[in-house]
Amino acid sequence: MQVLKVSGMSCGHCVRAITRAVQAGDPAAEVQVDLAAGEVRVASRLSLEQLLAVVREEGYAAEAA
Fold it and tell me: What is the maximum span of the chain, computed from C-alpha positions, in angstroms?
């Protein structure tokens, strides 16, 4: 399970956008978003670098937590 610190998330649209983006790279990925904490937890075969790149491509600032 990778934990990302993501800023700029504020609503359900943000959750769906990040989830779709991650699952586009790994359809079997499990994504859990905690808006209040600004965290995204991902169980995926994608590397941390790949996950950060995918989230950043969606327009969010992301770093390893």
Answer: 26
| pLDDT tens sequence across 29-53 | 999 999 999 999 999 999 999 999 9
Q: Count CB neighbours of 37 within 10 A.
A: 13
| CA-atom Rg of the chain in angstroms | 10
Q: List the beta strands (DSSP E) in the chain.
A: 2-7, 30-34, 39-43, 61-64
Distance CA 44, CA 11 (A): 23
How many whole angstroms separate alpha carbon 27 and alpha carbon 56?
19
Cα–Cα distance measured from residue 8 to residue 21, given in angstroms and rounded to the nearest whole number: 16
Q: Which helix (H) or strand (E) holds 50?
A: helix 48-57
Residue with tokens 């600032």: 61
Global confidence as pTM:
0.91
